[in-house]
Amino acid sequence: MKVALITGITGQDGSYLTEILLEKNYQVWGIIRRSSSINTERIDHLYHNQNLNLRYGDLSDGSNLLNIIYQIKEKNENLERLEVYNLAAMSHVKVSFELPEYSGDINGLGTLRLLEAIRNSGLKDVARFYQASTSELYGKVVEKPQNENTPFYPRSPYGVSKLYAYWICKNYRESYNMFVCNGILFNHESPRRGPTFVTRKITRGLNMILKGNRDKLVMGNIDAFRDWGHAKDYCYGMWLMLQQEEPEDYVLATNEYHSVREFIEVGFSLRGFDIKWKGEGLDEIGYDSKNGRELIIISDKYFRPCEVDELLGDASKAEKKLGWKRKYDFKKLVKEMVELDC
Fold first, then answer.
1. Closest CA to 322 of 256, 233, 262
2. Once rounded to an integer, what is the mean pLDDT over residues 100-109?
3. Distances (CA, A) of 167 to 66, 85, 126, 178, 237
4. Four-residue CA torsion sign, 329, 195, 104, 237
5. CA 198 to mean position of chain CA atoms
6. If you compute the radius of gyration of the chain from its CA atoms, what whole number of angstroms results?
7. Whether the predicted pLDDT of 295 surpasses 90
8. For residue 320, what is the DSSP state?
C-alpha cells in the first residue's frame, strides 16, 4: 500500500487531496492543528475510512513532526515510498501583515522542520516531498505571464515566508539528493475555500443579500487580476508531481486571468443581478441596473499595505511534462461556488 502524509489536511487543498489519495488506495496520514473549535468539517465525510490516520501536530513543533513520521515508519516496516504533501501554512496574505513573525515561523521555518524530520528519521531516500509554493512569490511581477523561470518579487510577509520555503526545498533537493518538488500554484478556489478569502466572501455575501441578512457587500481592491482555477484540478497536479522519475518545480495555472470586479459581476449575474459601476476609487459603487439598488461598496479596510495587481501563470511545463490538464474554466468555477453558497 502506498503511504502519504499531509500537513494542512483539514484545509481546502488537504481535503481534496485526501479524497484523491484514498481513491487510489493510499494509507493517508493527516496532521491536524489543535483548535478550541472543531475544524475538521472538510474531511468529516472521510473520518471512518480505515486508511485515514489523523494526528495532532503543528509545523512549529519539530519534535512532534519527527514523532509522527516515526509512527508512520513503525506501522510500515518495509516502507518503500512515503509521499509528504506540505500544505499547512498561515495562508491569508493580508493577515500576514499583522502576523509577520508567525507567518515566517510556520511557512518558512515550518517547512525546514518538516524536511529535517524526514532527514533525521532515516526516510530521506524513500520520501517524496511536495511543497505548496504560491504565485504570491511573483508579487510585483517583472514579466507576464509568469513561469518557472520568472524572477520572484514577493510583496507581503506571506510571500516572503513562502520564498524561504521555496529555496530551502531546492537546497535540500540539491544538498541531500532528496526528492523535493515546489508546486507554484496560482489562485485556486472551490466551494471549500475559507470564508475570509475574496472569492468565498463574494459568494457568501451574495447569499446574505439574497436572504435579506445584509444590504451591501463591502470590498477592497476590485481591480486586482488573478489567475483562478479549481482546487480539485490543482490537487491532482500535486499528486502528478510526485509520480515523476525526477523532482522538479512546476507552475499550475489556467493561463488566463480575471479581475475581482469580473468575479462579482459573473457571480451576481447567476442570481439575476446585472451589476454596473459608478464613481471612482473608494467612492465607487456597484449597483443593479434593473432597479438601481446599490449592492457593492469599497472600503480601504480591505486593501493590503502593498498590493499585488496582477498574476497570470503559464502552466506549459506542467501540461507538457506531467500531462496535467484542468477540467474547470472560470465561469464553471464561479457557478459551482455560487450554487453551494446560494
1. 233
2. 97
3. 22, 17, 21, 14, 21
4. negative
5. 13
6. 20
7. yes
8. I
- Residue 234's contacts (CB-CB under 8 Å, 6 or more residues apart) are 13, 183, 185, 188, 252
Backbone φ, ψ for residue 187 (5° rounding): -50, 125
Please confirm whether the linkage preceding 195 is cis (ω < 30° from 0): no
CA nearest neighbour of 161 among 119, 229, 85, 104: 104
**Is residue 339 scored above 90 in pLDDT?**
yes
Asked if residues 162 and 171 have their Cβ atoms less than 8 Å apart, the reply is no
Contact yes or no for 180/174 (Cβ under 8 A) = no
Work out the pLDDT band at 95, boundaries 50, 70, 90: very high
Point out the residues that are catalytic: 134, 136, 158
Alpha carbon distance 61, 117 (integer Å): 10
Average pLDDT along the chain: 96
DSSP-assigned letter for residue 258:
E
Residue 310 burial (CB count, 10 A): 18
H-helix segments, the chain = 12-23, 62-75, 93-96, 100-103, 110-120, 157-176, 198-211, 231-241, 260-269, 316-317, 330-341
- What nine digits make up the cell of 35? 483548535
For the chain, the residue count is 342
Q: What is the pLDDT of residue 299?
A: 96
- C-alpha 85/C-alpha 66 separation (Å) is 15
Tens digit of each residue's pLDDT (9 = 90 or more) over 9-19: 999 999 999 99
State residue 197's pLDDT score. Answer: 93
Contacts by 145-148, CB closer than 8 A, 24 or more apart:
145/253, 145/255, 145/312, 145/313, 145/314, 146/251, 146/311, 146/312, 146/313, 146/314, 147/251, 147/313, 147/314, 147/316, 147/317, 148/184, 148/249, 148/250, 148/251, 148/317
Q: Which residue ranges form the domains of the chain, and what is each CATH number?
A: 3-190+228-257+308-328 (3.40.50.720), 198-223+260-302 (3.90.25.10)
- pLDDT at residue 265 greater than cutoff 90: yes
As a whole number of angstroms, the distance between CA 90 and CA 93 comes to 8
Tell me the per-residue pLDDT of 276-288, one tens digit each, with 9 for 90 and over.
999 999 999 999 9
